[in-house]
Amino acid sequence: MKEIKPIRNDRDYRTAVKRIEALMDAEPGTSEFDELEILGTLVDAYEERRFRIAPPDPVDAVRFRMEQLGLTRKDLERYIGWRGRVSEVMGRRRTLSLTMIRKLHRGLGIPAEALISE
Questions:
Q1: How far is 38 from 7, CA to CA, in rounded Å?
Q2: Which residues contact 84 (CB under 8 A, 6 or more apart)?
Q3: Residue 110's CATH number
Q4: Total tally of structural domains belonging to the chain
Q5: Cα 98-104-108 angle, rounded to 5 deg
Q6: Per residue, what are the HEC states of 70-101?
Q7: Is 23 within 8 Å of 36 (Cβ atoms)?
Q8: Which pLDDT belongs to residue 118?
Q9: Would 4 be classed as within a structural domain?
């Protein structure tokens, strides 16, 4: 097993990815496979820090879920309120209230984190 070091920068990252590619055919139970697992964990942690994906805008999250489920704005009234309120939220003129967030999360399965981001 080669010496494994923390991934602190893009150069370290590229080196680790290159080594992972060389180890892809390692057999379970070998030191090469252990090295592959460790490097994979390090690369995952570095990518999480370096390439973090921002959560979606709450309205975009609602629109995406509507598209997935084939819902209309009328269908949102049970979660957001009357038609005017739905229009205000979807037009970004009103933010989601805590009650709306709870109803959208429970009723449509939209992650709460996506609904509370700014």
A1: 12
A2: none
A3: 1.10.260
A4: 2
A5: 160
A6: CCCHHHHHHHHCCHHHHHHHHCCCCCCCHHHH
A7: yes
A8: 65
A9: no
Residues 6+ apart with CB under 8 A from 31: 1
1 falls within a domain: no
* Range of the structural domain that residue 76 is part of: 58-116
Statement to judge: residues 64 and 111 lie in one domain? yes
Structure tokens at 20: 């992972």
User: Do 80 and 31 belong to one domain?
Assistant: no
What is the C-alpha to C-alpha distance for residues 41 and 47, in angstroms, rounded to an integer?
10
Say how far apart CA 66 and CA 93 lie, in whole Å.
Answer: 19
Per the structure block, which two tokens stand in for 99? 């009650």
Question: Would residue 3 count as lying in a domain?
Answer: no
The stretches in the chain having pLDDT less than 70 are 1, 118
Global pTM?
0.59
In terms of domains, do 71 and 92 share one?
yes
Positive/negative CA dihedral, 91, 54, 103, 106: positive
| Domain-embedded: residue 90 | yes
